[in-house]
Specification:
Layout lengths: L6 H20 L7 E3 L1 H7 L6 H13 L3 E6 L2 E7 L1 H8 L3 H22 L1
Antiparallel strand pairs: 1-3, 2-3
Helix pairs in contact: 1-3, 1-4, 2-3
Length: about 120
Amino acid sequence: METTLSKKDKELLIAAYKSYVEKRKTDPTSNARCLGGSETIKRELLPDWSIEDVENSCRSLSRNGLFKCLYADNIVYIASINDYGIVYAENIPKNKVKEILSAFGKLGEIISILIK
């Protein structure tokens, strides 16, 4: 089965992978895969996203086998990147990663100009 992800899903996956790599560098004994709940993910990894966007992407990544999510009251209580998610993120071409992240950066610039 082929994994099909939206740009937002890929952005969350890349952010989760970067977080995993950083945690492994600073504390190899930590549970580096664990991202926390949707509010923690928003606060620490994607502050410009809405909680709903974080929830939707976590669910999508979980359905695609890249995340393991535990739910409480139908919200993401704990999300973690799994082995398949790590391997998938490692194999996204670096120029694709830059393209995905810069697209969201440009969107933020456009929105800030429109709001002014």
